[in-house]
Every structure is written in C-alpha cells, then in structure tokens.
Amino acid sequence: MSSLIEEINIFGHCKKLEVPIWSCPRFVFLIMGVLISFSIITAYFVARQYTEPEIVIGMVTLLTIFLMAIMYILVNAFERVVYSRQTEAQRTKDILELKDQFVHIAVHDLASSATAIKWGLKTLEPKLVGLSDLEKEMFVNIRERNEQLITLSRRILLITRIESGHLEVTPLPINITETISAIKEEVVRAADEHQVTIEQVYPNDALMISTDAVHLREIILVLLKNAIRYSNPDDGKVTLTVNTENDHCVISVAHNGASISPEHRPHIFEKYWRDSAENKIEGTSFGMYIAKELTLKLGGTISFTSDPEQTIFSVTLPLAK
Amino acid sequence: MEPKKILIVEDDAVLLQMLANVLRQHDFIVFEAQNGIEGITHIKSDSPDLVLLDIDMPQMGGLFMLKTIRANGDKTPVIMLTNVNNPNSIADAAEFGVSAYLVKSDWEIDDIVKKIKGQLHINS
C-alpha cells in the first residue's frame, strides 16, 4: 500500500529528481493526460454539434497540433532531466579529478619533505657516537617514523591511482628470483632491527616472468614488511619462496608469528581494516589492500593460509610465455 | 684529475641545497637549476659531465627537458632522481637513455653519491 502511495506521489518524485515542476516528466505526463482527456471530450461534443467534414478535419488537425505540442513539452522535460544528470556526473568527475590533483601535489610535497629529513638524518649519523642511549633511541625513532611517512605517501598515491583507474601497468620480462632478492635487500635493516632472520628458497633461479617490476616490488615489500612486523617476537623467522605451479609462478612469504584469527580472515584485504590487537603495532593500514589490487592488475591472485605454526601469504603470477 | 661537473635540476630548494652541499664535499663542481628551462641553459653553457634530474617541476618538467636535450643531440649522462614512481615515467625515461632512475625517498644521500661516482668511473 505504501509503495502505491509512493508511486502516485508525483510531487515527491519530482522533488527526488531535483528539477523544476514544469521539467518533471511525471508532472508533465499528468497534465498531458488531463489535457488529452479534456480535448477528446470537447471533440466529442463539437463533433455532435457540427457534422460538416471541414469542421471535423479542422478540429482533428488542431487536436493533433495540440498533442504534438504536449509531446514536445514531455520530451523536453525528459531531456532536461538527462542533461541535469549529465551535468551532475561531469561535475562529480571534475571534483574527483581536482581531488586527485590535490592529493598528488600534497603527497609529492610530503614525500619531498620526508626525503629531506631522511637525507638530513643520514648526514647526522656520524654524530651519533657522542650521543646518550636515550638520544640515540630518539634518533632511531625519528628515522623509523620518517620511513613510515615515506611509505604512507607512496601508498596514498597508489590508492589514488588504483581508484581513479589511472594505474599504468608495463609488463617486461624479468628474472623473478633476482628481482625478489633485490627487494629483500631493502628490508634487511628492518629485519635486523626486529631481530628477524629471512630465509630464501629458490629452487629455480633462472625463472622468468613477464610483469611490471615497480608494482611487483610494492607487493613484495608489503608482504615482507608485514611478515617482519608480525613474526614471532622472540625468534622471528620469515621465509621467502619462489616456486612454479603449472604455468604460474608462486611467490610465498611465510612468518612464524601468531595466526590470524578466523573472524578476521575475511577482512585482511579490505582497505582500512586492522583488528584492535594489530592496531598496537605501527604501520600503515592499507598495505594488504594495495597488494591485492596490484596483484589483480598484474593478472595474478593473492591468498593466505594461517595456523599456529605459520602464516603464509602467496602471490601467483603467470609465467612468461 | 679534473673535478667532474654535476648539474642538479631540482625544484625543491632544500633537497637541491642538500645534494649540492654533499656533492661539493666530494669535490664535484655543482651547478644548480630549479626547472627544465634553467637546466637546458646550464647544459649549453657549462657542459656538465652528469645531470641529476627531477621530473615534477614548474615551467618545464624533467622528462620534457630530457626529450629536448636528446632531440638537440646532447648525450650527457642523466640520472633521474624523483619521487615520481610510475611505470610510464620509468619507461619514458628509459626511452631517452637515462643511466639510472632513482626514487629519491628510497635512496640514502650517500648511496646517491656512490651511484654518481660509479657512473663517472670515480673510485670512492
């Protein structure tokens, strides 16, 4: 019953469309119906009064012109609605593009500032010898926080590009084990600081795949940093494996930390999700979302298994043909 | 041995000064430019041995500058040093024969100096 009332509430519909009443198709349609009914009744009475063919033909012609005028108004009303929607869609698109430009400029400036801090800290490193333990710890904290800022800025840009559909993919043939080894070198310092050992298992070190090395680096960095962060705090171990399975290359990153609880598993690849326990561990929250989106862009899949012994994240990519 | 000449094209004044200071400490002669137009002027007047080139800059960006100097037949080695990290820019830079493409925030400043020295065959 309520849906019927809603259906005949013409003014409510027109309000929803956000167009003037005379541009609202339902209202114009109603007026048209009233006028057509009125015209037909008038034509009936006139035809009864005057039987001469000239008068009847003239009357039918006038009625046709009148109906055409009504139809024109109706079509015009539809066009206005469509035009107003197109304008709105264009405006939304323009706003989103402006937002992307703003994010790009802001993040570029953020990354430049973080780079300046990074380089400045590096030049100050020789002075660390004369500092107290507390001051050294503060120095290390500043450096770690700055690295987080750098990672965050890179990931914000990536998310912007993923969501705007502007993420470019340039596949080139690469030796996967050489590439993965080079990426692993980038996290050695973080692993040392967390007292985590990284083992590499590459049964075939001549394996070639065709992929975008920039995006692959980001995926592997996310998985490695995640594994280092969540591995066993007393005896942290991360195992990096590159293997083949049918016509695919499987890159796995395993750690020996606590398993992922069953209720959290469906949310691991969601954009902003982190469970309350994990929130206590520092890091940016959308790494796994980026890893998933980039893997899909590369034509691959990403998955994980988790038990009390170990948690393994695996990325499967097509082998070079 | 003659000191080598480095041209830094970088719009961020702080990063430009940091790089310039560190390179001067390593006995390089350093020229500074804050956009592609100034960069081209320095290439013509100072004939640097190597160019450190940013991408996102006002007036003329690094990729356009690179394209312009290559179109004029200049073969000075160029190291891209930028925070732009997307496959298209890397592919464009490679097409114009850059010696290396470094993402600034991924590199420590002394590793950048090592890279420059390696490119110019200077022993550390």
What does this structure look like?
The complex is a heterodimer of chains A (321) and B (124). Chain A is an alpha+beta fold and 321 residues long. Chain A is built from nine helices and seven strands. In chain A, the strands form two sheets. Chain A has a five-stranded mixed beta sheet. A two-stranded antiparallel sheet of chain A has the order 1-3. In chain A, strand 4 (236-245) and strand 5 (248-255) form a beta hairpin. In chain A, helix 3 runs antiparallel to helix 4 (53-124), helix 6 packs across helix 8 and helix 8 packs antiparallel against helix 9. The radius of gyration of chain A is 33 Å and the shape is elongated. Mean pLDDT of chain A is 85; it is low at 278-282. In chain B, helix 2 packs parallel to helix 3 (62-71). In chain B, strands 2-1-3-4-5 form a five-stranded parallel beta sheet, with helices on both faces. Chain B is 44% helix and 19% strand. The chains are: A alpha+beta (321), B alpha/beta (124). At the A-B interface, helix 4 and helix 5 of A face helix 1 and helix 4 of B.
